[in-house]
Specification:
The structure is a single chain. This protein is of the alpha+beta class. A 4-stranded mixed beta sheet has the order 2-1-3-4. It is globular. The structure holds S-(P-nitrobenzyl)glutathione (GTB). S-(P-nitrobenzyl)glutathione binds next to helix 4.
Length: 214
Amino acid sequence: MTPTITAFQSSPDRGRGLARDMRVRWAFEEVGQRYDVGLVSFAAMKAPAFRALNPFGQIPTYREGDLILFESGAIVFHIAQHHAGLLPEDAGARARALTWMFAALNTVEPPIVERSAAMLLEHDTPWHADRLPMLDARVRCRLDELSAWLGDADWLEGAFTAADLLMVTVLRRLGSSGLLDDYPTLLAYIARGEARPAYQRAFADQLAVFLRTQ
Ligand code: GTB
């Protein structure tokens, strides 16, 4: 059965692959699994029918027969568990990859999302200028640490895994901030992710939605 995911009908990222369906699309492409996409409006995402798929009224969701999933990390993990190519076979290496998947979503992503939200929602408040340096410092702290871990390695733990897939999508959110400019190691890491044919197919597909709905 072909799984169906949901994505924005009209994505605020204007097809730049920043909405979280991108990481699910990329995972499907890496493992060679076909999938369908249901496009939803903001209004539809908050309706009871959609909340049956995701109680928080957000994309992406995943449906395959009776199985309904939400949370992009859980969906990517599910795909990685059921197909070869995104997690190592060795149990220890697999656990390390899972550790980095959590690190991407629980340790690196939160300060980046916090900064994005402040830029979007607080930019005209009296406290924004005072708060931004603190938000930047929190992001830089994680970028320093991640960059130090990567060193001259291509990927977080040897070969490319679902953890790299998640981490690259998390870091891409900083694209227009200028914060990555001080981190050539991370810029090269992101570029390696973006150069993967599976990434490029996923990116083209989500961009096509944006172009079609203009
Ligand atoms: N923890 C959840 C997950 O990982 O799946 C978070 C899901 C989530 O935040 N979904 C967002 C959503 O549905 C879309 S991706 N928002 C609508 C709502 O909450 O009402 C977040 C996102 C949105 C826009 C941009 N952008 O414009 O650049 C980037 C990321």
